[in-house]
Amino acid sequence: MSSIDTATGQEAPEELSKERVRSIFAQIARRYELFNAVSSFGAYRLWLARMAAQVPVDPQAQVLDLAGGAGDVTFTVARKVRPAHIHCTDLVDDMLNVARERYERGEASGVPVSFQVVDAQRIPFDSERFDAVTMAYGIRNIPDRDQALREALRVLKPGGTFVCLEFSTPRNPLWNGLYNFYLDHLIPFWGKVITGDRDGFVYLSQSIKAFPRQDAFADMMRAAGFERVEWQNCTGGIVAVHVGRRPHGTCAPQRAQG
């Protein structure tokens, strides 16, 4: 199976999930950062900091932020790691407009950032261009995740690092039960209150529950060609930071077509 409905994990045409994502995130772009803060009780900033700590770059490094949305990862990496340049990309230009405004307010702390609409399944950059590729809450919304992972590997330099923050599955049964109750009832509630879009956050809950567990996603990364794959759970496994490296001495995978 390649292309799936990201709400269910079942095989489906690619455009079904892509159009849903465009519609939802275009509508909630202006309130998305507030939703993250409220719905996570502020923990999302700690998760971003944990993710940024796994981006091993130097002041000459080029970073690609996939599914960068309103710029949370881009600006956290800019402040904490300070690479030479960050390419902040997303499928939805409305989200990038929010990131552009934040950049104009100085949230990148002087690190140069460029913005571009990009489908992570077909990255329009040359192979072996970036020292690090980041993605937060994005891979879950991509209908062909295997292709997106191969594309991330392709644009990394040999030895480069892919860092992915994504909602996951708590291992403790009691904690997992409470978390699922929160996903089913409180996430749509907060979504409705903050953004006015309850249905979009019903989808968010569905996509989280349909996403592979930590070990299964790590296996997907290995199958795509990453080595030294590992993950760190945050807040009991509500989210996990996944890390993989492109092996040295390997040829660049073929660029995705389409």
Task: Give a brief outline of the structure.
43% of the residues lie in helices and 19% in strands. The protein has helices at residues 14-28, 32-39, 43-52, 72-80, 93-104, 145-155, 173-195, 198-210, 214-224, and strands spanning 62-66, 85-90, 113-117, 130-136, 156-167, 227-234, 239-245. It has a 7-stranded mixed β-sheet, sandwiched between helices.
Describe the structure.
- This protein is an alpha/beta fold and 258 residues long.
- The chain has a single domain, classed as Vaccinia Virus protein VP39 (Rossmann fold, 3-Layer(aba) Sandwich).
- It has helices at residues 14-28, 32-39, 43-52, 72-80, 93-104, 145-155, 173-195, 198-210, 214-224; strands spanning 62-66, 85-90, 113-117, 130-136, 156-167, 227-234, 239-245.
- Helix 2 (32-39) runs antiparallel to helix 7 and helix 3 (43-52) crosses helix 4 (72-80).
- Helix 4 links the parallel strand 1 (62-66) and strand 2.
Q: Tell me what the CATH architecture is.
A: 3-Layer(aba) Sandwich
Percent helix among the residues?
A: 40-55%
Q: In percent terms, what proportion of residues is strand?
A: 15-25%
The CATH class is identified as: Alpha Beta
Q: What structural category characterises the helix and strand content?
A: alpha/beta
Strand order of the largest sheet: 3-2-1-4-5-7-6
Radius of gyration: 17 Å
Instruction: Please summarize the sheet with the most strands.
Output: 7 strands, mixed
Could you give the order of the helices and strands?
A: HHHEHEHEEHEHHHEE
Contiguous runs where pLDDT drops below 50 for at least 5 residues: none
Number of strands: 7
